[in-house]
Specification:
By secondary structure, the chain is of the alpha/beta class. The protein has a single domain, classed as TIM Barrel (Alpha-Beta Barrel), CATH 3.20.20. Helix 3 packs parallel to helix 4 and helix 4 packs parallel to helix 5. It starts with a strand and ends with a helix.
Length: about 260
């Protein structure tokens, strides 16, 4: 199975041709797509996408760059929505959540408070988490050790091998996508090639993080097939083996995804 573990299919960039984007993805061999929310304002949209096609799953959460527009009531409502939706097999995680200290002008303390509460929601409902982390891996790892959610994915991973090991030691997988396809992305490519086989999952982060061959253009989930080719080449393994291993990793850290797909995995 070829699984896109992180794709913002609800983004406005897809409004004009979303059905065609999905059709191209499935024609390219993509078997499943996970769509994380970023704010309360798009929770309905990601749920609707999953309801329309069983091959699409979703996560609910508040992205660190959107927590400034959210208040404590939004976190209460998130908990209530997760409680109401826990019977929906399309809900596979809490996300996209985390810390982003790369973009200036955002309240770091508020980000950390919101992350802690969303990790508690994930723990309380036995859901994994989809993490967005930039320039804050040590703080996120510390929160994970304190709260101990089920498991999850460190999306768009770009940190040290030591930090990678700490995520793996906590049962997480690491997301690799378009950034890995650039020759200059030496650290990401090294991690893709050298980390153990249970470490990786594949993603597009579409419409963002376009791979090298469509740099500066809109990304879309159909590109995952060629991203998988690059990943297999970096690891010097057959493509089918690379896809099977990353799918197994995705289903391990997102266990509800197998049920949502009606899969035998």
């Amino acid at each position: 199975m070829l699984i896109d573990t992180h794709c913002h299919l609800d983004a406005a960039e897809f409004d004009a041709d979303r059905d065609e984007v999905l059709a191209r993805a499935f024609a390219a061999g993509v078997d499943a797509i996970v769509v994380p929310a970023v704010a309360p304002s798009n929770h309905d949209a990601v749920c609707a996408l999953a309801a329309a096609d069983r091959r699409v799953a979703y996560a609910l959460g508040i992205h660190p760059l959107f927590v400034g527009a959210a208040d404590d009531d939004d976190l209460v409502r998130l908990r209530e929505r997760v409680a109401a939706s826990i019977g929906d097999e399309g809900l596979v995680a809490i996300g996209e959540i985390g810390l982003d200290f790369f973009v200036p002008g955002h309240d770091r303390e508020r980000q950390q408070r919101c992350l802690a509460e969303q990790l508690r929601i994930a723990r309380d409902f036995d859901l994994p988490v989809l993490l967005h982390v930039r320039r804050a891996h040590d703080l996120v790892l510390a929160q994970l050790r304190r709260v101990r959610p089920l498991t999850g994915i460190a999306h768009a991973f770009n940190a040290s091998a030591q930090q990678a090991k700490q995520y793996l030691d906590q049962g997480f997988a690491l997301g690799f996508g378009g950034a890995m396809t650039f020759d200059r992305a030496l650290r990401i490519r090294r991690l893709a090639s050298e980390l153990p086989s249970h470490a990786h999952v594949l993603e597009t982060d579409a419409p963002d993080i376009a791979p090298e061959w469509i740099a500066r253009s809109r990304n879309e989930p159909a590109q995952l097939a060629r991203i998988a080719d690059v990943f297999a080449a970096l690891r010097d393994v057959p493509r089918d083996r690379a896809i099977a291993q990353t799918a197994a990793n995705a289903l391990r850290v997102l266990p509800r995804l197998a049920h949502a797909l009606g899969s035998a995995y």
